[in-house]
Write a structure and sequence with these properties.
This protein is of the alpha+beta class. The protein is built from 4 helices and 10 strands.
């Protein structure tokens, strides 16, 4: 199971409302042999199948809380097609490597929505770091907006890998 983690800032923002943060799940494409039930492969705060424009205002506010001084016409970078393909790939990576722990990286996304570099803040394994960094650098992103114009900005990405 892969858990998408939010940073401390969005968690604090959610705690201030007094309401538990909704959880979204991503299921396997096909159920395992001998079963008709698709297992959950990932659980997280944000919907997996939505692009940034399709997120709720509350979800956008939580994402924006990761950034200091984000103005009203500013937006963070975000995977162009949402998280679904990323987390399906992460699930396959975790199944093969069987590594547990938290990886915390930042992907610099340029004004054209291309990942240009990856900064590693924490990782449980060098091989996992290499593979996840490669996956995230080739991902297409909605670029950040600074004062309404596309700009370069870091996309923070923090995930906990667990074994089921």
């Amino acid at each position: 199971m892969i858990l998408a983690l939010a940073s401390a800032v969005p968690l604090a923002a959610a705690a201030q409302t007094g309401e538990p943060a909704p959880r979204h799940t991503l299921k396997e494409s096909e159920p395992p042999t001998g079963s008709s039930i698709k297992r959950n492969i990932s659980s997280g705060r944000f919907p997996y199948d939505k692009a940034y424009a399709d997120l709720s205002d509350a979800d956008k506010a939580l994402l924006r809380a990761n950034y200091e001084d984000m103005g009203p016409d500013d937006e963070p970078p975000f995977p162009l097609r949402g998280y679904k393909a990323v987390f399906k790939a992460l699930y396959e990576i975790q199944r093969k490597l069987a590594i547990t722990g938290v990886i915390d990286i930042g992907i610099m996304v340029d004004a054209e929505g291309k990942g240009t570099s990856v900064k590693v803040y924490r990782s449980p394994d060098p091989e996992l770091t290499r593979i996840v960094a490669a996956l995230m650098i080739v991902e297409q992103y909605k670029p950040a907006l600074c004062h309404g114009q596309p700009c370069t900005q870091e996309f923070p990405f923090k995930v906990r890998f667990e074994r089921q």
